[in-house]
Automatic annotation (TrEMBL):
Pfam families: Aminotran_5. Catalyzes the removal of elemental sulfur and selenium atoms from L-cysteine, L-cystine, L-selenocysteine, and L-selenocystine to produce L-alanine. This is Probable cysteine desulfurase. The lineage of its organism: Bacteria, Pseudomonadati, Bacteroidota, Cytophagia, Cytophagales. Belongs to the class-V pyridoxal-phosphate-dependent aminotransferase family. Csd subfamily. GO terms for biological process: cysteine metabolic process. Keywords: Pyridoxal phosphate, Transferase. Its EC number is 2.8.1.7. Residues 32-401 form the Aminotransferase class V domain. One of its GO terms (molecular function) is pyridoxal phosphate binding. It comes from Siphonobacter curvatus.
């Protein structure tokens, strides 16, 4: 088994030391955390940013003129600029803070979708979508008489782009697909998908929940109309997300929620709405978590996304080789381009049993349908065991997973 660390493009021990949660025992064994696609752990600078905010300058933003309010506002807006740079968005006004990818997608469905789509229009999603990029469109479609169509998934877990082209027509108004699949790891060729959708006159939303911690994102190069992500999947806090939208679209869309902050003037007769991005940020936002998101982005940027991606690729390759060659293992999703997600089934063993036995050995993996039931249906399975890797994982931990799976096989034989 491989234990060399010579090709790691950064100091893995220093990185691990930044994530205090990793240094603990679960069921008497050192924790191996392989549930990073569900949520990533938080480095000390993120935890400290949260603490510093609450200890030092908690105040409501934008409205106050006292010193604490000004500092809180400055840090909140600095984080918005950090997100702009992270996505290479043209301007900070096109960055809207939400509660997560789920809210970002619902916002687009309920504002752009509700306002601009009419009966008979079509929305194209894909067979690889998370439920949060299916259900919001279904809710809208049910109300407005829209049709939802899904791009089929090929046997290797890639999207069938040939069929996609044939699905596009003048009825297609929205195309909503993920940049990377959370259950199979497939990286979708979103630049190509966007170009084809645009040629048919549709706007495109990209669900970047999984891609954002692994791939360099450039919304201008992609020409994405909307791009959604969650802070907790990029080493930031939970309950916070981002919606990037092109200015012209955001300006044309009605607001999502009404309340304080999103208005210019309110009388009982009429309300005028605030400028971007505040039009979409009603109420007191998640200030502390927004402030801490900048610490997460700074952390990733310092290590460098290409370095992180290169290392995660090594982890994925090694895990794919080691686990793929085990008797009775069927890998689900073998796309040519993948983020570091390995999904598999073990013949004759329920995925929940695998999860429980691995947990007894201190190994945290995800089991089930991963909020992608249509993917499971496509492969005629109930669920998978999913190991997903982050920058702080090691080859030695993958060896432990392999040993853990061997134990599962022995116990369940
Ligand atoms: N899309 C994808 C591809 C995801 O992996 C997830 C989270 N598992 C979501 C959307 C939803 O993200 P959140 O729960 O943070 O809103």
């Amino acid at each position: 088994m491989m234990t060399t660390t010579s090709t790691i493009p950064f100091d893995i021990e220093r990185i691990r030391a930044d994530f205090p949660i990793l240094d603990q025992e679960i069921n008497g064994r050192k924790l191996v955390y392989f549930d990073n696609a569900a949520t990533t752990q938080k480095p000390i600078p993120v935890i400290e940013a949260l603490m510093n905010y609450y200890r030092g300058y908690n105040a409501n933003i934008h409205r106050g003129i006292h010193t604490l309010a000004e500092k809180a506002t400055a840090d909140f807006e600095a984080s918005r600029r950090a997100v702009r740079d992270f996505l290479n968005a043209p301007s900070a006004e096109e960055i809207i803070f939400t509660s997560g990818t789920t809210m970002s997608i619902n916002l687009v469905a309920q504002t752009y979708g509700r306002h601009f789509l009419k009966e008979g229009d079509e929305i194209i999603i894909s067979g690889l979508e998370h439920h949060s990029n299916i259900v919001p469109w279904q809710m809208l479609a049910g109300e407005k008489g829209l049709t939802i169509r899904a791009i089929p998934v090929l046997e290797n877990g890639e999207l069938d782009l040939y069929t996609f082209e044939g699905m596009l027509s003048e009825r297609t108004k929205i195309v909503a697909v993920n940049h990377a699949s959370n259950s199979l790891g497939t990286v979708n060729p979103v630049k190509e998908i966007i170009a084809k959708a645009h040629a048919a006159g549709a706007v495109v939303l990209i669900d970047g929940a999984q891609a954002s911690s692994h791939l360099d994102i450039d919304v201008q190069d992609l020409d994405a109309d909307f791009y959604a992500l969650s802070a907790h999947k990029i080493y930031g806090p939970t309950g916070l997300g981002v919606l990037y939208g092109k200015r012209a679209l955001l300006e044309a869309m009605p607001p999502y929620m009404g309340g304080g902050e999103m208005i210019k003037e309110v009388t009982f007769e009429k309300t005028t709405y605030n400028d971007l991005p505040y039009k979409f940020e009603a109420g007191t936002p998640n200030i502390a978590d927004v402030v801490a998101l900048k610490a997460a982005i700074d952390y990733i940027t310092k290590i460098g996304k290409p370095n992180i991606a290169a290392y995660e690729h090594q982890l994925l390759q090694y895990a794919t080789e080691q686990i793929g060659q085990m008797d009775g293992i069927r890998l689900i999703g073998q796309a040519k381009e993948k983020i570091s997600v390995l999904s598999f089934v073990l013949e004759g063993v329920h995925h929940q049993d695998i999860g429980i036995i691995l947990d007894q050995q201190g190994i945290a993996v995800r089991t089930g349908h991963h909020c992608t039931q249509p993917v499971m249906d496509r492969f005629c399975i109930l669920g998978t065991t999913r190991a997903s890797f982050a920058m702080y994982n090691t080859m030695e931990e993958i060896d432990k997973l392999v040993a853990g799976l061997q134990r599962v096989k022995k116990l369940m034989a």
